[in-house]
Task: structure prediction
Amino acid sequence: MKLIVKFNLVFLVVFLLGLAAAGYVSNQLLQKNARDEIVLNARLVMESALATRTYTSTQVGPLLQTQMKYSFLPQSVPAYAATEVFNGLRKTFPEYSYKEATLNPTNPRNRANDWEADIVNQFRGALDKPEVVGERDTPMGRSFYIARPMQIKAEACLYCHSTVDAAPKTLVDKYGPANGFGWKVNEVIGAQIVSVPTEVPIARANAAFKTFMVSLTVVFAFIFIALNLMLWYMVIRPVTQLSRLADQVSQGENMDAPDFVVKSSDEIGVLTQSFNRMKKSLVQAMKMLDDA
Amino acid sequence: MLVRGVTRYALAEGVRLQSGDIIEVGGKGLAQIEFPDGAALALGAGTRMLAVSMPRGKAASGNFYVTQGALKISGVNRDARLRFVTPVITLQPAEGVAVALVSGGEGSIFVESGETRLDGPPAKGAATVPVRLKSGDFFTLKPGQKGVVAPRPSPAFIGALPKVFLDTLPSRMARYKEREVQPRQPEPATYAEVETWLKGPPDVRRQMVKRFEQRASDPAFRAALITNLRFHSEWDPVLYPEKYEKPEADAAGIARGELAPAAPARR
Result:
């Protein structure tokens, strides 16, 4: 088997092993980053919803207290504000969603559907559970969700949600007396659920992985070609020529051929110089034998 | 617009209101009167109000006559003595915040917080005053109907109120505590500018005769008075004093008990 074949076989094995190892590591890393990005996105959405709620309850609500005596303004309700802000965001990112899923909501649009009710009931069954995360299929593609319990922690919340008689009249006018009452302190009445798409970050990770692998393959191919050319010009070709000359000299042919010229001072150059000296010595020895 | 004495001024922020001042708020305007105890009175566009009396003191007090418009009285405490007479009803906020709308013989009052008392004069046919309204009560009195108390204001009432009335009135009094601001652009009040008051209820009309008597020498003012004399006949002696001059002989006769005084001519 020729040297270049051996070399290329070894190179290919190393290349494939390297490509596989790099592919595995990079794929794991990219997928992990994509997952982290999904979770980060979900937490960011959740935190922005919480910030909107806090802003509404501490700053907007007090300003609207007087107007609430004339007509009920849902803009003063933290849940409404958070949902509306998110609805604005959904115009640009329709695959994201935020819902304050409630079992007995004042506003019907907050009523929990089947899978949301399951999450709310998980929280109701385990009051110390801080969070539920998971994935589910949606019409918009696979989605990651993060849910946190909505627990009544302050008596102030019951101002609107204890009984119909105690609630602001304007609220009852707007939403009716049937829903959103009978809440109790420490009761988990719903869950804040944020859903973010998994397909986009995963697709992005896959695209990045493909680009990385193709680039790595191109680099390896370039190295492969460059090494082969170098091996051919620097080793294979001079060694082949030297070998052919040595073969002729060993058979007493072509003894008066000029010295094999190699300008380099590397191992091949040293070998050539050694061979030229050996050839001269052999020629002189042959002449001495002929003279004798 | 502010009418003080017989002069009309342009209202400016910071002007101190006096007894007898007449305020008329323009089409898109808003006026606010603040009292030393923190009480405030906002007047919506189109409101016409006469400060009948405004006794000085720490607590908000005063008698006001409002012919039409929208009022918001806020920050009223127990010591306040405020009284708003309208052609429809008399409003006496006892405490808290009340909003009133008076227009075309109809009156509506919503008590945002606290308590408000309503008194006569009741409209013809109405028989539900006096009424004590508590927080959240909405009272409506329509011409020829009994007053009705509802648990919340009607959408029509809310829609007719100036938007700023739906919020807490902001106080600006601190800016003018140390500054004396004078009303601007003084001009003699024209008949049209005070016509509402010259044609007002009898007790108001009588005050106006004394107040604007000197303006009767103005030809335009005098002409308008004569044209509208049937609405304010108490101006007759001012316009035609000769009719009321008693001949010396008659006067002597009266002194002797021989002649009765002539009845004043009426138009």
Notes: DSSP finds six helices and 14 strands in chain B.
